[in-house]
């Protein structure tokens, strides 16, 4: 395939929102779903987020369970998967939690349009990969990650990155926890934002499974990619 197996994991409200209109993080998942997410992190080679998520949430993206961290270590891996930020203009703050918390490699994926001084600063903290001219070229990046040994890749959002990955045919499966709340707001991000598909071109999914979890439901979808 020339790229890793790629899945999106996300939590959304019953009306499809993944955070508020101010892009403030909301606890949508319950304990069981957060634990399922932790297992997905622990069994992935790398976790990817967009710069919008880093600026909004400052996530650490670490594996939370001590036993899972220990098991990863025992199998010769770092306690945390490689943590990757898609950041065309190299805006990741130098004091972001992904640099401070956990262990293992960090990658900042930038484009040719990133300011050189910012790239130099980030190189003190992470491996910086340049792919694409104005925006990160996600297809080229996925190929490069594959050649580095990343075979199982978890996408943790946000809405714009999810769109970019899906519209480039780069996603195999989506795991979406739907929580028992409404967030509302025309501008609140949804599972997939971006410019959207045309009517004749909508992306089809196959339902792989559904399960009641916490006070919501977990939906598992396979993406029917066109190529
Ligand atoms: N409930 C959940 O499961 C999750 C919710 N979120 C929420 O999502 C929101 C952030 O989502 P967004 O603002 O959409 O930001 P995002 O995290 O999707 O990052 C998008 C940014 O990535 C950059 N980028 C670089 N190369 C790109 C490319 N090739 N294609 C597209 N974008 C590229 C652009 O600067 C773009 O604005 C936050 O409010 C956060 O709380 C984020 C993760 C999980
Ligand atoms: N799966 C899930 N459920 C929720 O209810 C959420 N609010 C989120 N949010 C995302 O989780 C990330 C936080 O990671 P750390 O705890 O800092 O490791 C962050 O990206 C949130 O947007 N996810």
Automatic annotation (TrEMBL):
Keywords, sorted A to Z: NADP, Oxidoreductase, Riboflavin biosynthesis
Pfam families, per database record: RibD_C
InterPro entries cross-referenced by the UniProt entry: DHFR-like_dom_sf, Rib_reduct_arc, RibD_C, RibDG_C, Riboflavin_Biosynth_HTPR
Catalytic activity: 2,5-diamino-6-(1-D-ribitylamino)pyrimidin-4(3H)-one 5'-phosphate + NADP(+) = 2,5-diamino-6-(1-D-ribosylamino)pyrimidin-4(3H)-one 5'-phosphate + NADPH + H(+); 2,5-diamino-6-(1-D-ribitylamino)pyrimidin-4(3H)-one 5'-phosphate + NAD(+) = 2,5-diamino-6-(1-D-ribosylamino)pyrimidin-4(3H)-one 5'-phosphate + NADH + H(+)
The protein's name in its UniProt record: 2,5-diamino-6-(ribosylamino)-4(3H)-pyrimidinone 5'-phosphate reductase
Family classification: Belongs to the HTP reductase family.
Record's subunit section: Homodimer.
Molecular function via GO: oxidoreductase activity
Pathway entry: Cofactor biosynthesis; riboflavin biosynthesis
Residue ranges of domain Bacterial bifunctional deaminase-reductase C-terminal in the record: 4-219
EC number: 1.1.1.302
UniProt KW Ion transport keyword: no
Claim: Oxidoreductase is one of the keywords in the record: yes
Highest taxon in the source lineage: Archaea
């Amino acid at each position: 395939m020339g790229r890793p197996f790629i899945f999106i994991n996300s939590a959304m409200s019953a009306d499809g929102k993944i955070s508020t209109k101010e892009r403030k993080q909301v606890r949508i998942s319950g304990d069981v779903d957060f634990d399922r997410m932790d297992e997905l992190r622990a069994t992935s080679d790398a976790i990817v987020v967009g710069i919008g998520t880093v600026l909004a949430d400052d996530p650490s993206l670490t594996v939370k369970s001590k036993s899972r961290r220990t098991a990863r270590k025992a199998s010769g891996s770092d306690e945390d998967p490689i943590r990757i930020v898609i950041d065309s203009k190299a805006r990741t703050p130098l004091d972001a939690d992904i640099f401070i918390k956990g262990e293992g490699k960090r990658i900042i994926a930038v484009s040719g349009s990133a300011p050189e001084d910012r790239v130099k600063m980030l190189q003190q903290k992470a491996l910086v990969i340049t792919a694409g001219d104005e925006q990160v070229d996600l297809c080229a990046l996925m190929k490069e990650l594959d050649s580095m040994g990343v075979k199982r890749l978890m996408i943790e959002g946000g809405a714009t990155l999810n769109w970019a990955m899906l519209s480039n045919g780069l996603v195999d499966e989506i795991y979406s926890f739907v929580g028992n709340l409404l967030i509302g707001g025309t501008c609140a991000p949804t599972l997939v934002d971006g410019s959207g598909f045309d009517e004749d071109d909508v992306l089809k999914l196959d339902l792989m499974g559904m399960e009641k979890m916490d006070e919501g439901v977990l939906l598992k979808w396979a993406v029917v990619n066109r190529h």
